[in-house]
């Protein structure tokens, strides 16, 4: 089961857990109110998993690939790790399914505080278009993930500040409606 918590303000190694002391856990319901969707799937059988097929059809995830983030597998590894960890948003949902290894997605809550989401094998997450977020490996330094898209993939990340994009405005409207 996925675990999430509020992060401390430390600038130490980004791969460390960075839990507040005492820990402030974040529930799946709290993530849902931010527009973050979570599913648990059978990563050992992703190629034939009927549940993954059902999700892809229901959500129109027509395109997918698999990326391995490890210093020996990813070209320009150091540069990519820095880029992934820069706070940004996308104009489309970001869907990631962890097939092996582990890492962290960090998202901003409605008060602009960081929440760290620990992702492991079998976890699928959908981050809504317009949410500020970032990704990093954990201390294991390895993750293999499926990237899913509706239609052709768009890889463009817009670093903060990017508040003038319609996707960000729509996301902020969603948050305001959730707060009512």
From TrEMBL:
This is acireductone dioxygenase (Fe(2+)-requiring). Its main location: membrane. It comes from Odontophorus gujanensis (marbled wood quail). It comes from the Eukaryota. Coiled coil: none annotated. It catalyses: 1,2-dihydroxy-5-(methylsulfanyl)pent-1-en-3-one + O2 = 4-methylsulfanyl-2-oxobutanoate + formate + 2 H(+). Its EC number is 1.13.11.54. GO terms for molecular function: acireductone dioxygenase [iron(II)-requiring] activity; metal ion binding. Its cofactor is Fe(2+); Ni(2+). The gene is Adi1. It is found in: Cell membrane; Nucleus. It is a peripheral membrane protein. Keywords: Amino-acid biosynthesis, Cytoplasm, Dioxygenase, Iron, Metal-binding, Methionine biosynthesis, Nickel, Nucleus, Oxidoreductase. GO terms for biological process: L-methionine salvage from methylthioadenosine. One of its GO terms (cellular component) is nucleus. InterPro entries: ARD, ARD_euk, RmlC-like_jellyroll, RmlC_Cupin_sf.
């Amino acid at each position: 089961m996925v675990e999430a918590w509020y992060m401390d303000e430390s600038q130490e190694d980004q791969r460390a857990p960075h839990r507040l002391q005492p820990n402030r856990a974040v529930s799946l319901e709290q993530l849902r109110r931010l527009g973050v969707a979570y599913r648990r799937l059978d990563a050992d059988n992703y190629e034939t998993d009927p549940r993954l097929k059902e999700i892809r059809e229901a959500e129109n995830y027509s395109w997918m690939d698999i990326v391995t983030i490890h210093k020996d597998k990813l070209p320009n590894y150091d540069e990519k790790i820095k880029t992934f960890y820069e706070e940004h948003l996308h104009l489309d949902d970001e869907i990631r399914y962890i097939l092996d290894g582990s890492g962290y997605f960090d998202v901003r809550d409605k008060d602009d505080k960081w929440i760290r989401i620990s992702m492991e094998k079998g976890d699928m997450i959908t981050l809504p278009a317009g949410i500020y977020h970032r990704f990093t490996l954990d201390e294991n330094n390895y993750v293999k993930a499926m990237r899913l898209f509706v239609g052709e993939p768009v890889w463009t990340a817009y670093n903060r500040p990017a508040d003038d994009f319609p996707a960000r405005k729509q996301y902020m409207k969603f948050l305001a409606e959730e707060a009512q």
